[in-house]
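User: Fold this one for me? It's Delta-like protein.
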Amino acid sequence: MRASSVKFCTAFLITYSLALGTSGHSCQPDPCQNGGTCLAGVSSDPYYCICMDGFTGKDCNEVEQGPCHPNPCQNGGLCELMSRRGDVFGEYVCKCPTGFQGIHCQTNIDDCSSQPCINGGQCVDLDADFSCHCPSPYVGKSCQHTCASALGMEGGAIDDHQISASSLHLGFLGLKRWRPELARLNNKGIVNAWSMATFDLNPWFQVLSPSEYFHSE
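Assistant: Here's what I get for Delta-like protein.
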């Protein structure tokens, strides 16, 4: 309803109420809240409230929520009003999070549609993501790497932070440190491997990969 129509209807009802002489005790004290206008004798109820913009209810005591309450958008979508005319809410639009689409964000986008897995990998669609089940010897987000060359321990595909151990051996005055990240194939130099500490009674060496870890004792 447009604002001009609301004003016309309000004026008409007030005039009609006064003409009937029924604007008395039903509106005293005024039961209409939040600036509402009280009219008596215009319906079967003792009084009728014409509410200000943004309020509703018999006594104008309820906040008009609009179409975004409750939220019609699914999967974490954000509901936004496009416009509001007079006391009538306009249309709304759902702002969808990454990975979803549709009027109400109800459709999960198929992240496997672009066939991101290579080298025979099997794609599994997730929420705003995908996962590849890679056949041996391939690894990586899209099965783009191979473990054919000793899991990257020689070529450097496995980073130092992926390698850990139970302890390390300290050489002369602690100047030589046989750290776990030195456990590379064909390593050069005087300190060219990992060695456990003398007091280590339960030695272990661990190499982490993106999907699993290898642990030897």
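One thing worth pointing out: Residues 3-20 form the longest helix (18 residues).
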